[in-house]
Amino acid sequence: MREAVGGPTLVLTSGSPYAAVALAPLLLTRREHVARLGLSVRRGPGRPQTLRRVARRAGWRYAAARSWSQALLALLAAAERTAGRPPAERRFWTIDELARVAGVPVQPVADVNSPAFHALLAQTGAAALVAVYFDQILAPATLQRVPLGCYNVHPSLLPRHRGTSPVFWAMACGDTVAGVTLHRMAPAVDAGPIVAASATGLRPGDALSAVYLRCSRLAGVLLVRLADQLANGTAPPTRPQPSEGASFHHAPTREAVRAFLARGYRLV
After folding, report:
1. What is the mean pLDDT of residues 96-101?
2. Which of 11, 27, 106, 108 has its CA 20 to 30 A from that of 117?
3. Residue 41, CB half-sphere, CA atoms under 13 Å: how many?
4. Is a pLDDT exceeding 80 seen at residue 48?
5. Are the CB atoms for 158 and 190 separated by under 8 Å?
6. Contact predicate 224/169, CB 8 Å
7. pTM, whole model, 2 decimals?
């Protein structure tokens, strides 16, 4: 692991173990480029109120599978830790453990658009923001606070499946591939210009949790490349998102879950 000397990027994320999988290559191999980890303190997938909200819209089967898949990743992370596997060989993490091992300070973020967060940006001297499965929307005033730009990891091949639960929608809509896109943020959600993208094929019998995990590992590669570009003090080149094929989704519904299962996919 490289010596921690501070860095130009502030990373925003949630407590999801999928986010930890995506962030592990960046935090373990490019620690000097990361100033701080901003952790959203909004509701999480395993909290009772979140489960009830998801279940009302998509049904208890989907809500329970969503919560169980994240709990399973946390259990796998604990098993690797107990077995004493070296950090470079670990495949699963929790956000808290990953930040501790990498030596990255964690800052709770209640409101990414608040004066308090803007003050944090000034304090850390962050030149860029990178959001990885972050559950808050950055306002235009926040997007303008860092000179090298704000970037987001979105687990779909944009412009398809903007919005919520993109991996689910790629599978429910009958796509033959899923993937992840790293894009520069714009005021419109998930509509900013593309830095890079990576795809993974969808196979009969695939589980939503497994595809999400594959996308997260692809995201880890893109994040390391982005860190190396930003370390040179320049924003990476981008290309506009095409208008053809664009779609936007809200959270899954019971009808969408039935369509997903009818295609032969599994939730976990």
Report:
1. 97
2. 27
3. 7
4. no
5. yes
6. no
7. 0.93
234 CB burial (10 A radius; 0-12, 13-18, 19+): exposed
For residues 172 and 259, the answer to whether their CB atoms sit within 8 Å is: yes
- Which amino acid is present at 39? L
Half-sphere exposure of 232 (CA within 13 A, CB side): 8
Q: Nearest-CA neighbor of 9 among 143, 148, 194, 139?
A: 148
β-pair type (177-184, 194-201): antiparallel
119 near 48, Cβ under 8 Å?
no
Instruction: Tell me which residue of 46, 251, 25, 1 sits closest to 153, measured CA to CA.
Output: 25
80 contacts 91 by C-beta, under 8 angstroms: yes
Per-position b or e across 214-223, b if 16+ CB within 10 A of its CB? bbbbbbbbbb
Whole-angstrom distance, CA of residue 93 vs CA of residue 87? 9
User: In this predicted model, what pLDDT tens digit does every residue of 105-162 receive, in sequence order?
Assistant: 999 999 999 999 999 999 999 999 999 999 999 999 999 999 999 999 999 999 999 9
The domains located in the chain, with CATH, are 9-262 (3.40.50.170)
Nearest to 193 by CA among 162, 158, 244: 158
Cα–Cα distance measured from residue 52 to residue 263, given in angstroms and rounded to the nearest whole number:
26
Q: Which two tokens stand for residue 226?
A: 């982005």
Strand order in the sheet with 9-13: 106-109, 34-40, 9-13, 128-132, 150-154, 177-184, 194-201
Whole-number pLDDT of residue 46: 53
